[in-house]
Design brief:
Bound molecules: S-adenosylmethionine
Shape: globular
Number of strands: 7
CATH topology: Rossmann fold
Order of helices and strands: HHHHEHEHEHEHEHEE
Mean pLDDT: 92
CATH class: Alpha Beta
Strand order of the largest sheet: 3-2-1-4-5-7-6
Distance between the termini: 40 Å
Low-confidence stretches: 1-15
CATH architecture: 3-Layer(aba) Sandwich
Structural class: alpha/beta
Length: 231
């Protein structure tokens, strides 16, 4: 089942349209998005995700996650929305070799396919802790201040709750990264009032004014809003 709840007329990765709306040349946008090239393992994981409707993070967003995990020296990462493992592989490739990814999803089939993707990527099962369940049931059971990075890519309407949980889970200096924060170009357009768009837009406003974090909105893929927890 596709729980991504994408707007019916728009698909992820509208590179040309997003590029035009930002005034950026389409070629520049595509160049940046594909600057770090995905390997065959990631392409196959991406195909699995597309097939079951668990739309994977874009290539530029994936590279940004790997970068964040690397600069944080991340050993402990939480992911909300395992999908078929694309973001998980990017994260694990940036994390320390002894690091563990805790990833939550409500769809057993998505996690089964993610396991296949991780195995193909040569990631040992000790490095992943896949938890089947609703994010808002699972997250409260995870330990306060124990994580270096939290990546949010589940139900967009629940993003405000994921954000609060993430701030609780992160160590000082840790980072929360939230995908789809431009939501198919709808967030900057005030005429768009569907529940996902409204939830993401209001969360963005809240994060802009939140003294607990230092935020940045990276215009990669469908938008990756990152915020570092202050010490
Ligand atoms: C956009 S896909 C994730 C893609 C994945 N991060 C990747 O890049 O490959 C969203 C995933 O979130 C899961 N999901 C949706 N609502 C959820 C919830 N409330 N709790 C946990 N997972 C949820 C869906 O089953 C789906 O696999």
């Amino acid at each position: 089942m596709n729980r991504d709840e994408s707007p019916p007329t728009q698909a992820q990765g509208l590179t040309k349209e997003v590029a035009i709306s930002t005034g950026m040349k389409p070629a520049t946008w595509s160049y940046a998005e594909t600057f770090i090239v995905e390997d065959d393992v990631l392409s196959r994981a991406r195909a699995r995700g597309a097939e079951v409707g668990a739309m994977p993070i874009g290539q530029g967003g994936g590279a940004a996650l790997r970068f964040l995990a690397a600069v944080l020296g991340a050993k402990t990462v939480v992911e909300i929305g395992t999908g078929c493992g694309v973001s998980g592989i990017w994260l694990l490739r940036g994390m320390r070799p002894d690091g563990t990814l805790t990833s939550v999803d409500i769809e057993a089939e998505h996690q089964r396919l993610a396991r296949e993707s991780f195995a193909e990527a040569g990631i040992t099962s000790q490095r992943t802790r896949l938890i089947l369940g609703h994010a808002l049931d699972v997250l409260p059971r995870l330990t306060d201040g124990a994580y270096d990075l939290v990546f949010c890519d589940g139900d967009k309407k629940e993003y405000p709750d994921y954000y609060e949980e993430a701030l609780r889970l992160l160590r000082p200096g840790g980072v929360v990264a939230i995908d789809n924060t431009l939501w198919h170009d709808r967030v900057p357009d005030p005429a768009q009032r569907d529940p996902q768009t409204v939830a993401i837009r209001e969360l963005g406003k809240r994060i802009q004014d939140d003294d607990r974090v230092m935020p940045v909105l990276l215009p990669v893929g469908d938008g990756l809003l990152c915020a570092a927890k202050r010490g």
